[in-house]
Design brief:
It is a single chain. The protein is mainly alpha-helical. It has helices at 2-27, 42-54, 62-88, 108-135, 138-204, 209-250, 254-262, 272-293; strands at residues 90-91, 267-268. The chain is elongated and about 95 Å long. The chain crosses the membrane at residues 6-25, 37-56, 62-84, 105-127, 139-164. This is ABC transporter permease. It comes from Acetobacterium tundrae.
Length: 294
């Protein structure tokens, strides 16, 4: 069990390193990839352990090893993506734009890449790591694992809290957006109703010029008063709502910022528009900073 746990955390760390290198090549800067805040990607730990232990008998048969690796890693990625989405209502990665993808969770291109990577791991990397692990004294391994597990558990709890807060924030953004829209609609509907009433009254008394003029003037006064009331309502209610909306968009604790950077294709299954607004606001801020620096 000690050996298995050491393998899990080693490959979780190496997987995180690969993700960071890939992001650096793609974006030209450091991005802390992965679900957790710390330098661990657990899905890599599970994936490599499954491949190493399940396919060890086929180590010498590269074709079977490759196909088995593709199948195992695809199943793990599919299950992990599905479970995370159902638990947190977020789609952390999305291959929907890739051909022959399955629910956006897996796609042939990346599955084949995992298969090739696992060939290298099983044939070259794992034997070296196994030797290093064998050299670690048992007592040191136990102490090391105890520290890592405590940090891992703390990081996991903190990350879950951050995600729950993000979901709550998205919910509040949607609620405020709905209130602002409703307020605007009520103002518009009120004005429209008065205008329609005015037209109807004008048509009904078309043959009575004097009465028509009088009613028209009265209705114009009512309309003016309605517009004034609507304007005052607008001035009092909407600025406060929009200020609260803007503060929600701009409020982005460290953990939430990191998640959005780590998962640029992150999608919310319940609050898609709110998450898109946060991303748009983030892009606008980045462009503004870049233009000032230029």
């Amino acid at each position: 069990m000690i050996t298995v746990l050491l393998f899990f955390f080693i490959y979780a760390f190496l997987g995180w390193c690969c993700e960071v290198c890939f992001a650096a090549l793609k974006e030209g800067k450091f991005i802390n990839r992965g679900f957790l805040n710390g330098p661990l990607c657990p899905i890599y730990g599970f994936g490599v352990l499954a491949v190493v232990f399940l396919l060890q008998p086929f180590k010498e048969n590269f074709f079977v090893l490759f196909l088995g690796s593709v199948l195992i890693t695809s199943i793990i990625e599919l299950v992990a993506g599905f479970v995370l989405e159902k638990m947190f209502h977020q789609k952390w990665w999305d291959y929907a734009d890739k051909p022959f993808n399955i629910g956006g969770y897996v796609c042939p291109l990346f599955s084949l890449m995992w298969g090739v990577a696992c060939l290298v791991v099983v044939d070259r990397i794992h034997p070296l790591i196994a030797k290093v692990v064998d050299f670690i004294p048992e007592i040191i391994a136990i102490i090391l694992l105890a520290v890592i597990i405590i940090l891992f558990a703390s990081d996991l709890i903190a990350t879950v809290k951050i995600i729950l807060k993000l979901n709550k924030k998205l919910e509040r953004i949607d609620e405020l957006s709905a209130i602002i829209k409703k307020t605007s609609n009520e103002i518009g509907e009120n004005l429209a109703t008065k205008t329609i009433d005015l037209v109807n009254k004008k048509d009904a008394i078309e043959d009575k010029i004097d009465i028509k003029k009088k009613i028209f003037e009265e209705d114009m006064a009512i309309q003016k008063e309605t517009k004034k009331a609507a304007s005052e309502h607008w001035e009092q209610a909407l600025p406060d709502l929009r200020q609260a909306y803007r503060e929600l968009l701009e409020a982005s604790p460290f953990g939430q910022k990191r998640l959005l950077r780590a998962f640029p294709t992150l999608k919310s299954t319940q609050h898609k528009e709110a998450l898109d607004k946060i991303k748009e606001d983030k892009i606008e801020k980045t462009e503004s900073v870049d233009s000032k620096e230029a």
